Amino acid sequence: MASKIVLSTAGTAGDLNPFVAIALELKARGHRPFIATQREFQATVEDEGIGFYPLRPSMADVRDELGLDPSEIIERTTRVSTGLGFAVRHIAMPFLRRTFDDMMAATADADLVVTHTSAFAARLAAEKRGLPWLSAALSPFTFMSAFDPPLLSAAPAMRVLRDMTGARSDAALVQIVKLATTTWTRKFQRLRTELGMPRSANPLFEGQFSHLGTLGLYSPLFGSQQADFPVDCTLTGFCFFDHRHGAPQRLSPEILAFVRAGPPPLVFTLGSALVLDPGDFYDVSVSVAHRLGQRAVILVGPEAARVRAGKPAPKDVLVVDYAPHSELFPHAAAIIHHGGMGTTGQALRAGKPQLVVPHFADQPDNADRVRRLGVGATVAAAAYTPARARRELAALLASPAYGGRAREMARALRTEDGASNAVDIIEMTLGGASLRRSA
């Protein structure tokens, strides 16, 4: 009998895509997957023949409630020191009760729920209904391990301190952050009490993980499992998906003609969120490509027409809205990006050197892991100037070691099937739940 599986996520396209990959595998095995997330992603999900439930808040809901336009919302949520607090205290918690009501509707007659780190209401709905649920983590950063502490800031001084202390400084900082954020989620704990549930651990940290198991949706080559990971945690491998509603699933004729017309280009991208608040990233990127004498493809998101209508790019620089990373990255000489987990995984799979320019959240840690793996380098967003970026990229392109190591990583990643491994765990959990119900 087909099982109804509800996968709940929130955030950017990078937070959505792994869940779509898992849903497609569930569908291929005869299950009925549904994704519950912001309305902005409805068309992308339904394009794949996957059921969809809208969850509040959408970008429009946040705009109407806070009086901020999308670029202001992104700017507030991606500030290094205050972004997480803004997202939790001013977006997630004020909408929590409404999101819970949405999730209760989504989980009617469900058999199992899978929850993203930010899916606070999904955990509550699963518990309230007595449904089995699995938690999911998209990057090593999520686990906040004391044995493999995440790098919490892209500031060069923080990395120096980390290296000097053997990462003990970051482990201590994690504990401070855990204590400091307990007040952010008081509404979550109050709603638990209202629903007749006991208080939980901090839902931003240990409280996000299910006692039935956690899916680490990234490769163990990127970050290995640690002794203090949650119970029954499985690192599945990356779950790749990068289609977008209204965009071609292959390279457009314009992009294909460009990449075939000369040497491999540099590829610059800020993912799906930071494109709304890019700062001077694009201007610096065009300057760097020109100074290095390199062709370039720059992905600028929905502002492509405005960017192209402004300062004209050189003829050896192609400015476009979007291209599937899985199709474009293999053509690159190097990939310059923000360090989001989805983009990082696609760059690793393409086997190309990376220059990571991290901004917030897990991006500094992802960037540092790229550096430690020997497949790329990193420079803080505030230090991404024409001179610094040119120096870093020149060194990256001149050394065959980066490309060689990147190709080795790509070959190893091809042996993994993250979506299939994740669904194996989901089916085992379903089987165990069925046995408990029949006992």
3D structure, described in words:
It is a single chain. The protein is α/β, with parallel strands linked by helices and 439 residues long. It folds into 2 domains: 4-56 and 95-238 and 417-438, 3-Layer(aba) Sandwich (Rossmann fold); 253-413, Glycogen Phosphorylase B (Rossmann fold, 3-Layer(aba) Sandwich). 46% of the residues lie in helices and 12% in strands. The protein has 19 helices and 13 strands. It has helices spanning 13-28, 42-47, 59-66, 70-77, 83-92, 96-106, 120-129, 156-165, 168-180, 186-194, 253-260, 281-292, 304-309, 325-328, 341-350, 363-373, 386-398, 400-413, 418-438; strands at 4-8, 32-37, 51-54, 112-115, 133-137, 214-216, 233-235, 266-269, 296-299, 317-320, 334-337, 354-356, 376-378. Strands 3-2-1-4-5-6-7 form a 7-stranded parallel β-sheet, with helices on both faces. It has a 6-stranded parallel β-sheet with strand order 10-9-8-11-12-13, sandwiched between helices. Strand 8 (266-269), helix 12 (281-292) and strand 9 (296-299) form a beta-alpha-beta unit. Helix 1 (13-28) crosses helix 19 (418-438), helix 6 (96-106) crosses helix 7 (120-129) and helix 12 (281-292) packs across helix 17. The model has no long low-confidence stretch (mean pLDDT 92).
